[in-house]
Amino acid sequence: MTIKTHTIEKKNSNHNQEWSWEETPEVTKALETLHESSKLAASFQEGTKKASKAPNAATSKRKT
After folding, report:
1. Distance between terminal CA atoms of the chain?
2. Is 16 in contact with 9 (CB distance < 8 Å)?
3. Angle at 29 between CA 5 and CA 24, to 5 degrees
4. Which residues pair with 19 in a beta bridge?
5. For 1-64, where are the alpha helices, taking DSSP H only?
6. Could you tell me the sign of the dihedral formed by the alpha carbons of 32, 33, 38, 41, in that order?
7. Does residue 9 sit in helix, strand or coil?
8. pTM here?
9. pLDDT grade, residue 7 (50/70/90)?
């Protein structure tokens, strides 16, 4: 197990934050799974950007 740390530095050094965590095999596997699902979600999102409007959607013209 490895202990990882991350420090967030603020303008006032009294308010700096230090985060630390143990990197276990379970955490590593969970991060890999998260990365894969994020890539899958991004690929779905790219597909929806191309088709911006449904072909049978109503027009946005005002009635007079």
Report:
1. 70
2. yes
3. 45
4. 6
5. 25-50
6. positive
7. coil
8. 0.46
9. very high
CB 6 within 8 A of CB 18: yes
pLDDT digits (tens, 9 = 90+) for 10-54: 999 999 999 998 999 998 999 999 999 999 998 888 776 554 555
The pLDDT value recorded for residue 46 is 75
What own/partner pairs with CB < 8 Å and gap ≥ 24 does 12-20 have?
A: none
Residues 20, 22, 25, 26, CA torsion sign: negative
Beta bridge partners of 6: 19
- pLDDT score at 57: 58
E strands within 1-64?
2-8, 17-23
**Count of positions (residues) in the chain:** 64
